[in-house]
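A reminder before we start the practical. When you read a complex entry, don't treat the lines as separate problems. The point of joint prediction is that each chain is placed relative to the others, so the output describes one connected object in space. Small molecules and nucleic acid strands, if listed, are placed in the same frame. In the example below there are two entries. Take a minute to note the order of the lines before looking further.
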Amino acid sequence: MRTVVQLKVAPPPSKYDFEGLLRARRIDLPPISIDTLQVNITKLCNQVCRHCHVDASPARREMLSPDGVAKCLEVLERHPQITKLDITGGAPELHPGFDAFVERAVALRKHVMVRHNLTVQLDGHPQTGENKEYLPRFFAKNRVEVISSLPYYQEYFTDAQRGSGVFKKSMEAMKRLNTLGYGVEGSGLALNLVYNPVGPYLPAAQAGLEADYKRELKDKFGLVFNRLYTITNMPINRFKLHLDKSGQYEAYMEKLLAAFNPAAAEGVMCRSLISVGHDGRVYDCDFNQMLEMDAVDARGKALSIFNFDFDRALGRRIRFDDHCLGCTAGAGSSCGGATI
Amino acid sequence: MSNYYESEDLKKFGDIGQHAKGLADAFFKYYGDVTGTDGALSKREKALIALAVSHAQQCPYCIDAYTTQCLETGANPEQMMEAVHVAAVMQAGITLVHSVQMQNHLKKLVL
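Here is the predicted structure of the whole assembly.
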């Protein structure tokens, strides 16, 4: 009688093994602090951007529950060392509890940032038709920091990435924010823009591009803003699908790998924030969240906002994977732009 | 290989060091010093010049490389297309200005 022996063979390491790269370079990236609670409260969005790592769209339904929102607020209240709340999505303003979440976090004296896609002001809620034109006044009243995507100061690139008509609506939405003082020097109302490349290439240098945006938006549209953050496209989800379909995935990963910058790696955002998903699970960043790579404590147990323990979260080992090359290429990339 | 130009071959540019490493190293250092830094010209201006030269020299490798480099230095399609027009008009002008030579010789020949 013959015995069939099945050998278990470990999959070969990825060509883009980020952990291996860190080991080879003797780089250790433990968490430094948790000063920011980033909460992705919904995947619902009025836009369908071609690079979106969330795969957000008007068809999505995921929402953080009222209990989840309450728990985030409780965590913020209990932990003075978490000074910032970064609310993202989708379009976070489409969450039914968004306004109350902002108001209560502001009442806790937290610095509140909203990832606002500009056009939701004019588009409203894609499922209910609810009007959202009050948003600039709401933001100003609560003095939240507004962070808005605008992939270029021209229509061609912006509409290619974010959809037809987005550029013109974005200009109108910025005008409404400017009218209330957003982006105006000395107003204390911060309007920061985000640049993403419109394809598989790295962002230009942040300072030079910011100067271009300021000049062009002022000269052509009379618009102002404070800072420009350059962010590299992540090779996951919708953007990865595009790379796969167009046969550019390998070339893009090789570009990110070749541009690996140890100094940029030191500044990765996962070392100072945690990310909360719509189901209350905790992640090292919004990208890991979309890949469902739960943050785990030192004993390997997944973290959740529902039983949050600051020391367990700070003592975690950050989970890395191939996509992390996106945050460490060139001048680095984070939710606050370049890291060096 | 089925074609004289293969896009994959762009990755082999470094292989020009085979049989002449010292010269290749010197070239790549010079190349990096010229194109990879902001100097009297910005990296973007240099990328746009290189894009124009790529078209004038009709180098498919360079056109791919400098289209990307233009985007990675923040240039936009209008600037890139204008750079190509500079190359085109230079080539047209260079052709046309030689007609002076032709006219000079014509005058010599014609009674």
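Discuss with your neighbour: The mean pLDDT of chain B is 95. What might explain this?
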